[in-house]
Amino acid sequence: MNDLRAALVECARKIDDYRGRRKINEDNTKATLVEVVLRALGWDTSNADEVEREYRHASRSKPADYALILADRPQHPIAVVEAKALGTNVSDYAIVSQVLSYATDTGAPCAVITNGDEWRIYNAHAAVAGPDRFYRAVRISDSGNRPGEELLRVLLLLSKDQLRAGNVQRLWEAATYDQQVSSVLSKLFDPADPLNKGLLDTLSPLLPTLSRQALEQSVARMRATFEFSPTTPIPAKPAAPAPARATRVAAADGQT
């Protein structure tokens, strides 16, 4: 954690310096920003078996800038990273489609786009449209010399242990479900929505001293917001229990 904090402070200083003096190209962005963060996350950028540059899953496929590979799962990258020059709009649809296609080709469950400052993380294999696979984005420059907990939490999802655990996928699922639940809950408090009647029917017997009209007026004045913890992923599904091993029982006559 301390290594990551120090790396982010270093990167924030560089980003501020670059923006004040000159633009830097993609190669320099990779060398002075992107790889600094990857190393701080525990990835050995000098080991091509762990961090492979210009990774091609097949000879005719387009290369991903980086493939992050776990030693115990060498067949497919655990994540692909597409790096652009500092200042590039990394939410551009063409770039998103590009990195998600790399993830599909390579089998990587996680896709990342970065311009050295902004880091965008995607659940690459979610069964939804490309942009909806987006999970979270953070900017290093937003924290300056004091990296915030959200920046650290999100970037640590790209560490080996968290990628191996599938936390990007589970947190994306949790955020997706929370968004759906929040949408329905918000409708309960909207007088124009049919769901509002159900809320009023539920509240009426709990507040017998209030008239229906008073209850309706009170709910109409309410401005409800719902907060969900961003740090608790949906637990992994437990493995199916192994079938019981059959045992041979001795027959009554002592034969087996």
Briefly summarize what is shown.
Residues 242-256 have a biased composition (Low complexity). Helices cover 41% and strands 12% of the residues.
Topology as H/E string? Answer: HHEEEHEEEHHHHH
Number of helices: 8
What CATH architecture of the largest domain do you see?
Alpha-Beta Complex
Strand order of the largest sheet: 1-2-3-4-5-6
CATH third-tier fold name of the largest domain: tt1808, chain A
Radius of gyration: 25 Å
Shape: elongated
Secondary structure category: alpha+beta
CATH class of the largest domain: Alpha Beta
Unreliable stretches (pLDDT < 50, length at least 5) are 238-256
Oligomer: single chain
Distance between the termini: 61 Å
Tell me how many strands there are: 6
**Strand fraction band?**
5-15%
| Tally of individual domains | 2
Helical content class: 40-55%
- Average pLDDT, rounded to a whole number, is 87
**Largest sheet, described in full?**
6 strands, mixed
Biased composition (Pro residues): 232-241
Biased composition (Low complexity): 242-256
Protein name: Type I restriction enzyme R protein N-terminal domain-containing protein
Organism: Streptomyces monticola
Topology:
Layout: H1 2-21, H2 26-40, E1 51-55, E2 64-68, E3 79-83, H3 93-106, E4 110-114, E5 118-123, E6 134-139, H4 149-156, H5 160-165, H6 167-188, H7 195-203, H8 212-221
Parallel strand pairs: 3-4
Antiparallel strand pairs: 1-2, 2-3, 4-5, 5-6
Please tell me about this protein's structure.
- The chain has 256 residues and is an alpha+beta fold.
- It has two domains: 2-165, Alpha-Beta Complex (tt1808, chain A); 171-221, no CATH class.
- The protein has helices at residues 2-21, 26-40, 93-106, 149-156, 160-165, 167-188, 195-203, 212-221, and strands at residues 51-55, 64-68, 79-83, 110-114, 118-123, 134-139.
- It has a six-stranded mixed sheet with strand order 1-2-3-4-5-6, with helices on both faces.
- Strand 1 (51-55) and strand 2 (64-68) form a beta hairpin.
- The longest helix has 22 residues, at 167-188.
